[in-house]
Amino acid sequence: MAGLPLRDRAGNVLLAVRQVTESDLTRLATAIPVSASLVVAVHAGAVLMMFDRRRRQWELPGGMREAGESSRRAAARELAEETGIHGVELTFAVVAEFALTRPARRELLAVYRTDLPAAPWLSLSEEGLGFRWWSPGEAVGPDTSPLDAEIAARVLAAA
Q1: Minimal CA–CA distance to 140: which of 63, 74, 51, 148?
Q2: Residue 144 forms beta bridges with which residues?
Q3: CATH 3.40.50.170 fits 6-158, yes or no
Q4: Cβ atoms 156, 42 nearer than 8 A
């Protein structure tokens, strides 16, 4: 695992990855918004990554919460929309703190994990160009989000 803080090519910084309870998200959100959720989908020790059409990099499925939506619901919705994976059990794993650019802001992301007993049938959305299974033992290539790879590695190591 890499040391934190960790910066990506756009200047976004992963500041911390903390193990808290899911119920702590409400308290944490009073200081820094919990604006999005990510999912670490695991099969046979590898993590599902999707190639984001806009950012042109491999990253974890996930995205922004909609108005009135819980972090858990956002994680399930984004996973389904971006991969076609529905109805899986999500376990709250960690909260990740970021300093983001464009616009400059601090955000927390709720990170969930799902363990898939079999490789799922995956379907692309308009956001993605492809899927791959990445093992945390592999090097992080220049076309992979180092921030998402670090989050995935830490979630797997904590299990």
Answers
A1: 148
A2: 58
A3: no
A4: yes
Q: In Å, how far from its chain's centre is CA 97?
A: 12
Query: Each residue's pLDDT tens digit in the chain (159 positions)?
Result: 789 999 999 999 999 999 999 999 999 999 999 999 999 999 999 999 999 999 999 999 999 999 999 999 999 999 999 999 999 999 999 999 999 998 999 999 999 999 999 999 999 988 899 999 999 989 999 999 999 999 999 999 997
Full DSSP string of 62-92: EEEPPTT--HHHHHHHHHHHHH---S---EE
Dihedral over Cα of 131, 43, 123, 87: its sign: negative
**Whole-number Cα distances in Å, 67 to 36, 87, 107, 157:** 11, 22, 16, 32
Tokens of 82: 């971006």
CB atoms within 10 A of CB 51: 18
State pTM to two decimals: 0.96
